[in-house]
């Protein structure tokens, strides 16, 4: 059974989320402060952590940092709308995704499913590769730029065949750029394509994702994938 840790100090929200998740078939533990959150997340194996940012004792960002030092469990942050700094700091600290409050429960459930599915496909990858032919299944759609390949259906990115681990949002930003090779994408365009309407106008978030992609791809593999077009946005040039 898929286990989710809900960290939320507002009892009504916590109870509501617990009921909805339980109804969806998830097993749910709840804690209402930062210290208990760290204890629970590190002492038990959760499949996902839903983490409010404003918490008593330790704030959500610090909780996230402490979890990340030891575990790569998917973490979805619950942030106040317009709390841009929370989102940027959360990305830097390794959050997989965000949901802004107040949220529609359907949106939260969808984000949870995506985060779980991505984590599953990453976990399954080495075994699948070792056990079968390296050729991808014929049905998958793969975008390419130089040595970088992005498999749209499998949520996988490789550089010269080596897998790169990206968060959901990093993947979506790269996806938007690779689907529009040689087209300069404004930050707003990238935000709306990759992150959804919530993020339009919060264009510095795109800069954060680009920075992450560069450190995980350009820096690691010594290539120049993403070009900055000063005052406009970003582009991946190819061919
Ligand atoms: Ca709170």
Topology:
Blueprint: E1 3-7, H1 11-23, E2 27-31, H2 34-43, E3 48-52, H3 60-70, E4 75-80, H4 84-92, E5 97-101, H5 105-131, E6 142-145, E7 148-151, E8 156-159, E9 162-164, H6 168-178, E10 185-186, H7 187-195, H8 204-221, E11 227-229, E12 233-235
Parallel strand pairs: 1-2, 1-3, 3-4, 4-5
Antiparallel strand pairs: 6-7, 7-8, 8-9, 10-12, 11-12
Helix pairs in contact: 2-3, 4-8, 6-7, 6-8, 7-8
The site of calcium ion (CA) has 5 residues, from loops.
Write the CATH homologous superfamily of the largest domain: Response regulator
Distance between the termini: 47 Å
Tell the overall outline.
Answer: globular
CATH architecture call of the largest domain: 3-Layer(aba) Sandwich
- β-strand number: 12
> DSSP helix count?
8
**Range of strand content:** 15-25%
Specify the helix fraction band: 40-55%
For the residues shown, what is the average pLDDT? 87
CATH class of the largest domain: Alpha Beta
**Helices and strands: which structural class?**
alpha/beta
Rg, alpha carbons: 18 Å
Q: What's the structural domain tally?
A: 2
Predict the CATH topology of the largest domain.
Answer: Rossmann fold
The topology string of helices and strands comes to: EHEHEHEHEHEEEEHEHHEE
Strand order in space, largest sheet: 2-1-3-4-5
Low-confidence segments, given as residue ranges, are 128-137
The largest β sheet comes out as: 5 strands, parallel
Bound ligands, each once? calcium ion
